[in-house]
Each structure stands twice: as structure tokens, then as C-alpha cells.
Design goal:
The chain is built from no helices and ten strands. It is an all-beta fold.
Length: 121
């Protein structure tokens, strides 16, 4: 079954930047819509950024103006550019959404392993 794989996390100092990537584990027709989530220890998973089929975007207030979600349709990859990172951005980041494995099918894959982002000096 197609899965989503997140990458690009790491340790960064406050004020720094990271770019996360989200891609399917195998070749697909296209990504229809995608959302980035994050979950900090002891907290609920929260939606932070979404991109839709028409390329419109939406952001949580906590990341608005600092994070940018974008997509590369040629490579079926969605990115999350994170700037001005704060310690409170520390979390495991996940992507999930609707993908089209073929031109006639649409699925919502299972959750991937996520990628850890740690913001600390």
C-alpha cells in the first residue's frame, strides 16, 4: 500500500530554518491535497498547514507568517518551509492527505513515521 514518507527534520537553533518534505513511497499519479501536522510530547496532534488541489493554502495561527507549504507536482512532493523556528515548534511532524495512486483512484494513506524537529540552543 502506498505510504507517505516525511523527511528533513533535525536539530536547529532558535531562529533557524528547516525544510520538510513529504512524498509517496512509490510512484503515484498525483497528490490531490496535503496537510502537515505536528505532535509535541504530551500534546494532541495539531494541523499546521494545508495545501489543496487548487494550490490554495491554509495555516494555523501559530505558524502563519513563518511556515510556507508548497508542492512540486512534477515530483509529487509537498514541502513545508519553516523559518524563524521557536522552541515551541519542537515536535514530530507528519503529513497526510488525499492522493491519487492512479488517475481513477483516490486514497488517504495510513500515517507515516513522521520526522522529528527539535528547536534548541
Amino acid at each position: 500500500q502506498v505510504q507517505l514518507v516525511e523527511s528533513g527534520g533535525g536539530l536547529v537553533q532558535p531562529g533557524g530554518s528547516l525544510r520538510l518534505s513529504c512524498a509517496a513511497s512509490e510512484t503515484i499519479f498525483r497528490i490531490y491535497s496535503m496537510t502537515w501536522y505536528r505532535q509535541a510530547p504530551g500534546k494532541r496532534r495539531e494541523l499546521i498547514a494545508a495545501i489543496f488541489s487548487d494550490d490554495s493554502t491554509n495555516y494555523a495561527d501559530s505558524v502563519k507568517g513563518r511556515f510556507t507549504i508548497s508542492r512540486d507536482n512534477a515530483n509529487n512532493t509537498v514541502y513545508l518551509q519553516m523559518n524563524s523556528l521557536k522552541p515551541e515548534d519542537t515536535a514530530v511532524y507528519y503529513c497526510n492527505g488525499e492522493i491519487k495512486p492512479t488517475i481513477r483512484t483516490m486514497i488517504r494513506p495510513p500515517w507515516g513515521p513522521g520526522t522529528q524537529v527539535t528547536v534548541s540552543s
